Amino acid sequence: AARPAAAISTAAVSDRVVVVKFDGTVHPDLPWDFVPVQRSLEVRPGQTYQVSFVASNRSSRRVTGQALPAVAPWQATAFFNKLECFCFRQQSLDGGERVEMPLRFTLSPDLPANINSLTLSYSFLRMAEGQGALAAN
Question: What is the pTM of this model?
Answer without folding.
Answer: 0.82
